[in-house]
Amino acid sequence: MELLFWLFFFLICLYSCISWLASIPILSPVSSSKISQETIKNDWGTSYEEMIKLLPEHQNFSIHSFDGTLIKGKYFKSNKEAKSLIIGMHGWCGTWIDMLKYIPVLKDCSFDLILYDHRAHGASDKSHPTGGYNEAKDLLAITEWAEKNTGFKDQQIGWLGCSWGGSTALIAGATKRDIGFIIADAPFQNWYSAIFERAERTYGRWVKYLSISVMKIVDWRTGVNHREASPLLAAKKIKAPVLLFHSKTDLSTSAQQSINIFKNLNTQSEFHHLNWGGGHTLDVVLNKEKFQKIVNDFLKKIDGPFLK
Questions:
Q1: pLDDT tens digits, residue range 149-199?
Q2: Contact 27, 36 (CB under 8 A)
Q3: In Å, what is the CA distance from 21 to each residue of 169, 215, 218, 219, 229?
Q4: In 58-94, which positions are buried (b, 16+ CB within 10 angstroms) versus exposed (e)?
Q5: Which end of the chain is more exposed for a tag (fewer CB within 10 A), N or C?
Q6: Residues 297, 51, 273, 163, Cα dihedral to 10°
Q7: Domains of the chain by residue range
């Protein structure tokens, strides 16, 4: 009997240790401008130097978010008088540099641009990521800063996010309901699915047996209930028009997650289930002209101050 007790105790300790170790990569993204620049070279077939030429000179800025986390970004002010402001949010393990791939498809827009590093990414403070929950509050803080410092208001501002950034924009859209538009490329439907869909694909279905303990550790370490990091739930409260993209050949985040989100969105919104052969958030690189046309048609339809 005593042997069974110690065996059970050992298994519980082993399970807890494995769960703790599994939580580490969830809360510790590896992110740097150097990595982002390598991505441009390897996945986009161009260089950071060529992409940054598409934008005007920038000014650096930083804000303290709601909890004191320092968020750092770039403000690109157009050389011509802009009608609008677009705020871009990158994906997991990215930096603001990763959003440069969307600049060519915005060439018909009249806009100033803000790009920034999420918390725990790039040059921003290394607090724990929270699946878009606190990141959405950071986006709201960035938007408030922009309204005070650029003169653009509500309907003149649009949010553009890819992957983690797209999910962040959707969660924030449930709070700031008067934003001009939201474009989300390959978002996840909730933090749990973002983690364990990929984990099961990589390591096998057995990892789901760790999910309860791993997420309890994540909740404890972040102080956030992971269930609240949910674009799927937020979508029901979004009033802004949403343009949703997702590749059918995305092997990182399944397109079914965007399908589920779209079912909860308002009637102004659109979902484009792309069959262009691109991987996760890469259709914009492979098919700039097609992607640009979809964006332009959407912006014409919502009749905002975004096109030239």
A1: 999 998 999 999 999 999 999 999 999 888 999 999 999 999 999 999 998
A2: no
A3: 29, 12, 11, 15, 22
A4: beebebebeeebebbbbbbbbeeebbbbbbbbbbbbb
A5: N
A6: -120
A7: 1-29+199-224, 31-190+229-302
Q: For residue range 214-268, list pLDDT tens digits in order.
A: 999 999 999 999 999 999 999 999 999 999 999 999 999 999 999 999 999 999 9
* Contact status, residue 293 vs residue 94, Cβ threshold 8 Å: no
Cβ pair 141, 166 in contact under 8 A: no
Q: Using an 8 Å Cβ cutoff, are 150 and 87 in contact?
A: no
CA distance linking residue 233 with residue 29, whole number of Å? 25
Kindly report the backbone phi and psi dihedral angles of residue 62, in degrees, each rounded to the nearest multiple of 5, phi listed first: -145, 150
Cβ neighbours for 158, distance < 8 A, ≥ 6 positions apart: 84, 85, 86, 87, 111, 179, 180, 181, 182, 183, 304, 306
CATH number of 31-190+229-302: 3.40.50.1820
Query: Which residue type, as a one-letter code, is found at position 51?
Result: M
Alpha-carbon span 138 to 149, nearest angstrom: 16
Across-strand partners of 73? Answer: 61, 116
pTM for this entry: 0.95
